[in-house]
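Input (structure):
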């Protein structure tokens, strides 16, 4: 059963924070980007930096990914 369905693409930042975060039940081990689109640039430049607390700073990636569909 799916308890809640959200409209597609409503919270890119929340999705990225979850995917690059520690997880809720199982640990997310070595989160990383595995794909991009033409014009996104090198994956190493898109990879979110790790903050001192161990969290990934996904702000730049969120802005970039959020702008992608609007440009298409």
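Output (sequence):
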């Amino acid at each position: 059963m799916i308890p809640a369905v959200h409209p597609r693409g409503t919270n890119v930042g929340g999705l990225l924070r979850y995917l690059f975060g520690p997880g809720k039940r199982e640990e997310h081990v070595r989160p990383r980007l595995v794909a991009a689109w033409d014009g996104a640039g090198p994956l190493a430049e898109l990879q979110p930096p790790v903050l001192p607390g161990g969290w990934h700073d996904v702000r730049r990636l969120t802005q970039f990914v959020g702008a992608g569909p609007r440009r298409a």
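Notes: The mean pLDDT is 76. The radius of gyration is 13 Å.
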